[in-house]
């Protein structure tokens, strides 16, 4: 991890480094949104985004184009362009690509993680309405305490985050919980924006709750998690209701148009072995409603289950059902993950803060007793958090076995194209 707080440049130092070069952000998802917002907050405009995902081509984010890497490098030089890498999974590979094209890291390129200490993921809802078999909410028998973060606690939390980590640009308001179950979410969103931060939500949208007040509070980015169409959706989004989902998807578009046309909406599609062709219907719906479509091979979460399989321990029938439906099997995922175990861990630069202010050791492990520090976030300094991460024997074991790269393999769009896992993935770059 090796974070040196005193080496983070001040905004004026960053402006001096950039000079009069055109700024490009590499990564057009919510890390990129955060980078864009932070730069704007400090008076630095950007020219465009760069992203290798074919799914994003032709889209615009905050009025800026999204370019593929090859056209960018064909026209840019270190004298004319400056790059801020805001891609958590692939920052190391992107930095190598920049070097091959003559861009020097530290002079012509910065990695977002060299500006901020952590990416903050706050589970404002310690509960979920679904019991998906691929998620610990459905396949784990023990959980952290149920509850919801209040707006007053959240306000104090943000005050501390910005005091500790002033380059923070976005707050992710979910992890294993369903944030729209928190009745104070509209106020929480208002507090987020009053602090000069962007907000990210992810929802299953498979409930009767009316959420117009949430959209009226203007979240920046809204993800809908889906898998399959009609009856196939209800298998893997276990406990979900297809008709209710469709009603709410269209309501979301209506509420967006009424209250917040600039809101970025992403449908996040989980690929199983029985829903390959269903993505055509989702693409048509996204085109109709003006949503973006992203996808990944359906993962088996949490990493606790991956570890159990690696060690030959028994797993429950919900985990077994998930594995039987997966397009990309755990054994192949771990073979690929192990081959890149030398690469960085995306998750060690994240903090998952639970609704009760506990700090989970990792956002992708689930064991309820596994915390990074025994104290609450409010009682812990950045130096203590960094020291705890760097000294973690648990992290060292995870990285030694390549488990830290597991979910990155599931999300690899190039692998999806190579395996022809989706009809839309042909030609992915």
UniProtKB/TrEMBL annotation:
The keyword tRNA-binding does not apply. Keywords: Iron, Iron-sulfur, Metal-binding, S-adenosyl-L-methionine. CDD domains: Radical_SAM. It comes from the Bacteria. The keyword Iron-sulfur applies. Residues 126-256 form the Radical SAM core domain. Its cofactor is [4Fe-4S] cluster. Pfam families: Radical_SAM (PF04055). PANTHER family: RADICAL SAM DOMAIN PROTEIN (PTHR11228), TUNGSTEN-CONTAINING ALDEHYDE FERREDOXIN OXIDOREDUCTASE COFACTOR MODIFYING PROTEIN (PTHR11228:SF34). This is Radical SAM core domain-containing protein. It comes from Allochromatium tepidum.
